[in-house]
């Protein structure tokens, strides 16, 4: 069962400019990732937009493996600030999910 929280998106927007709703899941960002890990921003952003806290926790390895190099952003047809969104997700996870 997936734990859904209405507060995930609200909290992310409080932290900063979370613009993941602009993503239309084209996959361009995934092909450009130099890390070589299965980092799928479109899936991670969908979990955040839906408030799927458990899924975000499950995806914490890819979220924290991202180099924030912005290669993915350079070719995003919608101008999604992918690295900024990943950075905001890291802050959210550290504050809300991984709290002691």
From TrEMBL:
GO MF term set: iron-sulfur cluster binding; metal ion binding
Q: Which keywords fit this entry according to its UniProt record?
A: Iron, Iron-sulfur, Metal-binding
Query: InterPro entries, per this entry?
Result: 4Fe4S_Fe-S-bd (IPR017896), 4Fe4S_Fe_S_CS (IPR017900), HdrC_iron-sulfur_subunit (IPR051460), Helical_ferredxn (IPR009051)
> Where does the record place the 4Fe-4S ferredoxin-type domain?
14-43, 56-85
What's one Pfam family here?
Answer: Fer4_8
Gene Ontology annotations for the cellular component aspect, listed alphabetically: plasma membrane
Q: List, alphabetically, the PANTHER family matched.
A: HETERODISULFIDE REDUCTASE RELATED PROTEIN, IRON-SULFUR-BINDING OXIDOREDUCTASE FADF-RELATED-RELATED
UniProt-recorded name of the protein: CoB--CoM heterodisulfide reductase, subunit C
Its lineage opens with: Bacteria, Pseudomonadati, Thermodesulfobacteriota, Dissulfuribacteria, Dissulfuribacterales
């Amino acid at each position: 069962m997936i734990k859904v929280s209405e507060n995930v998106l609200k909290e992310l927007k409080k932290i900063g400019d979370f613009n993941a709703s602009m993503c239309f899941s084209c996959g361009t960002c995934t092909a450009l990732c130099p890390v070589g890990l299965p980092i799928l921003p479109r899936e991670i952003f969908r979990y955040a937009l839906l408030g799927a806290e458990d899924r975000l926790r499950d995806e914490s390895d890819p979220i924290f493996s991202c180099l924030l190099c912005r290669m993915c952003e350079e070719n995003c047809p919608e101008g999604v600030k992918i690295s900024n969104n990943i950075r905001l997700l890291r802050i959210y996870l550290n504050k809300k999910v991984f709290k002691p």
